[in-house]
Each structure stands twice: as C-alpha cells, then as structure tokens.
C-alpha cells in the first residue's frame, strides 16, 4: 500500500484505459497507480507521461510479482486476457476485467475455476447496471414487486386488485438497442458484435431479474 491506498496495476494502456480507467484511478483517493503495463511501447510511453505511474513495464509478470500491487485492471486485447487473468489470480491480486470475460464457454469455465481455486475477487466491466438511471429503475421495480398496484389507466371490471394469474410475479425484460453499422469500430466484429458489445445489454437485462438465467439461447 501507499499509505492507506491500494496499489493498482493497469495492464493494457490503450484507448479504453487512457480515456476512462487511468483518469478515474488518478481521481480516486483510495488508489495508487503502481504500474502501467503494455506490450506496445508507444501506448506505454503515452500512459507513463500522462499518468505518472510508479513503474512502467512491458512484462505483466513484473506487475504480478509486486507485493505492493493489490489490484489488476486488465484492459488488454481479448486474446491476451485468459493468460493475464490466470497470472494475476495465482499471484493473489484481485481483478477488474474489461468485457468480454472470455471468447468461448471453455475459456469462461476455465477462468471461473481459477478464480474459485485462488479465492481472488474478479469483476467484469459491465458498467451499465451502475448508471444512476438504472439504479433508480431497479428501486422502482423492487417497490412495485413488494406492493403491486394497477396503473390508474387500467380498466378494472371487478373493482378488485390485480388478478392472481400464472406468471404474475415474473419479470420480462425487453431491451431495444438502436444502432447502425457506422457507429461500430471495425474491431468490434473481430470477436463478434454479440460478444463484444451486446454482452453489456445482456448484463443490463440480468440486473433487473430476481435470479440468474436457467437457459440461454440465440
């Protein structure tokens, strides 16, 4: 620790890290930027000059070996994430991982096994559920679930409360995403738009459900 702050290493210092994660770390009073790590010398040097980490390296193993680095923020390319998650989990570092967590179910199961085995904490950067508007919508839904009330515009033939129908307590989430081809970057299609971007909206739907999904299909 630096004083009472947690030491953090950022692995992958490209656009996402430099535009979002590193500025957030710099503003956070409880975090100390111990490392910037990237295999691209230009990106690493740019991050070093802009955010002044205690150390900069192209070798993630140096970050994992630092006992004063407690957290790893992994924003590296998709293909590098499996090895990095395993490296930092086995080094006892807690992990914030940019989405998608994995590129296949086999890889996903493997990483979950490693995290479970090592007891490290891992969170994936699905940030839409953290938006203030979403949190307020969740509060409103929880309030309605606790005490359902028919809307005033609904015609009530029997002058009684809501009907006790099968599935009345279930939640249906319908997400409509308006987008077009030109708003996507070319790299979004390398792993597939569903894996790379729609994962955010699948997570957002899950944020409103009272239980995990039991079946997924597409």
Question: How does the SSE layout of this entry go?
Answer:
Blueprint: E1 6-11, H1 15-27, E2 31-37, H2 41-51, E3 55-57, H3 60-65, E4 71-74, H4 81-90, E5 94-97, H5 105-118, E6 122-124, H6 132-146, H7 193-207
Parallel strand pairs: 1-2, 1-4, 2-3, 4-5, 5-6
Helix pairs in contact: 4-5
**What class would the helix/strand composition place it in?**
alpha/beta
The pLDDT mean sits at 86
Q: Main sheet: which strands, in order across?
A: 3-2-1-4-5-6
Quickly give the CATH architecture of the largest domain: 3-Layer(aba) Sandwich
Topology order in helix (H) and strand (E) letters: EHEHEHEHEHEHH
Main sheet overview:
6 strands, parallel
The beta-strand count equals 6
User: For the record, what CATH class of the largest domain applies?
Assistant: Alpha Beta
* H/I helix tally: 7
Number of domains: 2
Proportion of residues in extended strands? 5-15%
Radius of gyration: 22 Å
Based on CA inertia axes, which overall geometry fits? elongated
CATH topology of the largest domain: Rossmann fold
Helix content: 25-40%
Would you give an account of this structure?
The chain is built from seven helices and six strands; from the N terminus they run βαβαβαβαβαβαα. The chain has 218 residues and is of the alpha/beta class. It has two domains: 6-124, Rossmann fold; 129-148 and 171-212, no CATH class. A six-stranded parallel beta sheet has the order 3-2-1-4-5-6, sandwiched between helices. Helix 2 (41-51) links the parallel strand 2 and strand 3 (55-57). The radius of gyration is 22 Å and the shape is elongated.
């Amino acid at each position: 620790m630096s004083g009472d702050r947690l030491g953090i290493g950022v692995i992958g210092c490209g656009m996402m890290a430099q535009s979002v994660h590193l500025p957030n770390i710099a503003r956070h009073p409880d975090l100390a930027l111990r490392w910037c790590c990237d295999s691209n010398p230009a990106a690493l040097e740019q991050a070093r000059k802009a955010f002044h980490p205690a150390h900069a390296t192209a070798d993630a193993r140096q970050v994992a070996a630092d006992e004063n680095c407690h957290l790893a923020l992994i924003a590296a390319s998709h293909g590098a994430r499996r090895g990095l998650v395993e490296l930092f989990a086995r080094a006892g570092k807690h992990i914030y991982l940019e989405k998608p967590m994995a590129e296949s179910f086999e890889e996903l199961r493997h990483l979950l096994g490693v995290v479970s085995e090592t007891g490290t904490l891992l969170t994936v950067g699905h940030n839409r559920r953290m938006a203030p508007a979403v949190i307020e919508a969740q509060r409103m839904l929880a309030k309605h679930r606790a005490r359902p009330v028919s809307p005033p515009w609904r015609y009530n033939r029997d002058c009684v409360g809501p009907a006790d129908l099968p599935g009345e307590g279930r939640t249906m989430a319908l997400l409509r995403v308006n987008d077009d081809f030109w708003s996507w970057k070319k790299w979004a299609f390398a792993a597939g738009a569903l894996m790379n971007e729609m994962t955010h909206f699948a997570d957002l739907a899950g944020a409103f459900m009272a239980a995990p999904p039991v079946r997924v299909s597409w």
